[in-house]
Amino acid sequence: MTNKLTSEDLIYGYMNGIFPMADSDGTLYWYSPDPRAVIPIETYKPAKSLRPVLNRKTFDIRVNTDFEGVMRGCARTRSDGEGTWISEEIIEAYTDLHRYGFAHSVEAYLDDELVGGLYGVAIGGAFFGESMFYSVPNASKVAFHHLIERLKDRHYSLLDTQFINDNVRRYGAVEIARAEYMFRLRIALDLRCQFADGVPEYAIVFQEK
After folding, report:
1. What percentage of residues in the chain have a pLDDT greater than 90?
2. Which residues, in sequence order, are CB contacts of 58 under 8 Å at separation 6+?
3. Backbone phi and psi for residue 73, each to the nearest 5 degrees, phi listed first
4. Are 127 and 156 in contact (CB under 8 A)?
């Protein structure tokens, strides 16, 4: 892989079960956790407390209208003082990947202001969830709900969430062995799903290499 992270590096990494994160000094490291955390798509159900928010349609949900804005929202230093693993190099590479039609954002707006969302990478029938943020309560939860609905509607088979933590547990994340993850990944990569309408033709060609 090149010294500078590229969209080609990202595609290669995801297809082989690895993903990058930046250290506090910006140094990139590649990870392949064992066990790996995934969220079963078909068994997901929104929390009872979220259903009134969904019914009220509090947020306007959009897809791919401000990808970089979502990434920068996710890159903000957390309230607990912990730094971010999303460096400028990572933002640049994923934004390029978004232009090629592989990286996507699901965004929540309130009064036409971006108040939450998530982003990830879609290849074949796999969606690799990267990060989410919110500035208004429930915004990221609603964005995640719409992500799941889109993955179901478009017949995705794998939702990767990388590491287990309390945040992803609330969405139903479970851990599986890396070998099992790689088996599921190979099956998912053979699918031809389309996350967003109007994906550039060259992205589809690139996907099939």
Report:
1. 79
2. 110, 138, 142
3. -65, -40
4. yes
> How confident is the model over 29-39, as a mean pLDDT?
96
For 191-204, the pLDDT digits (tens) are 999 999 875 544 55
E strand or H helix at 7, and its extent?
helix 7-15
pLDDT of residue 78: 56
- Distance of alpha carbon 198 from alpha carbon 42, whole angstroms: 26
Q: What is the pLDDT of residues 96-124, one digit of tens each?
A: 999 999 999 999 999 999 999 999 999 99
Q: How far is CA 28 from the centre of its chain?
A: 18
Report helix, strand or coil for 175: strand
Handedness of CA 118, 124, 126, 128 (dihedral sign): negative
What is the Cα–Cα distance from 70 to 107, expressed in whole angstroms?
A: 7
Q: For 84, list phi and psi in degrees, rounded to 5.
A: -110, 150
Residue-range domains of the chain with CATH: 33-196 (3.40.630.70)
Lookup result for tokens 């590491």: 163
53 sits in which H/E element: helix 51-56
Beta-carbon contacts of 6 under 8 Å, excluding residues fewer than 6 positions away, are 93, 96
Taking the C-alpha atoms of residue 107 and residue 88, their distance in angstroms, rounded to an integer, is 21
Strands 158-162 and 126-134: parallel
Give the angle subtended at the CA of 187 by the CAs of 70 and 142, to the nearest 5°. Answer: 30
